[in-house]
């Protein structure tokens, strides 16, 4: 297990499916940008998977230089607007953890939570990485339409975006989770 003070790399799985269109996607991308900006300032390696339905995954490694930040801004303009398959970016994230450079990375899943339950095999693989590598999977829930149990199955801790009064297109309110 890595020490709790270790600040390893960050792998972000960013939902750009159709259910994220509009304010949810804007907030999700802004939160992703801020997370990666912070990691960049701390000289932490970052990798982003933007995903939607089956086979719709784009990826980008963020180096610690100004040119990468410009590429990231261009990358964040992409959207798939299709269905949602969170399994593929999670499998790719787990595969990345096998590389020594990424072995102590944590995963951040940014989504509205409208994802199907992951397979038992994926849950087992995540649990194995959590046990063997000290992996932490954080969720950032943008919106309130998803099934909280699905995020609970994937994430160690799920945070909810709650500042909808600052964003146009505010979704209907439901009990917030944190």
Helix residue percentage? 25-40%
Biggest sheet architecture: 6 strands, mixed
Kindly state the number of beta strands.
6
Average pLDDT taken over every residue = 82
Structural class: alpha/beta
Give the N-terminus to C-terminus distance in angstroms.
25 Å
Instruction: Please trace the helix and strand order, writing H or E for each element.
Output: EHEEHHEHEHE
Task: Please describe the topology of this protein.
Elements (H helix, E strand, L loop, with lengths): L9 E6 L7 H19 L4 E6 L5 E6 L3 H10 L11 H10 L9 E6 L8 H14 L3 E5 L6 H7 L2 E4 L18
Helix pairs in contact: 3-4
What does this structure look like?
By secondary structure, the protein is α/β, with parallel strands linked by helices. It has a domain at 19-101 and 111-118 and 132-164. The protein is 34% helix and 19% strand. It has helices spanning 23-41, 66-75, 87-96, 120-133, 148-154, and strands spanning 10-15, 46-51, 57-62, 106-111, 137-141, 157-160. The chain has a six-stranded mixed beta sheet, with helices on both faces. α4 (120-133) links the parallel β4 and β5 (137-141). α3 runs parallel beside α4. The protein is globular. The two termini are 25 Å apart.
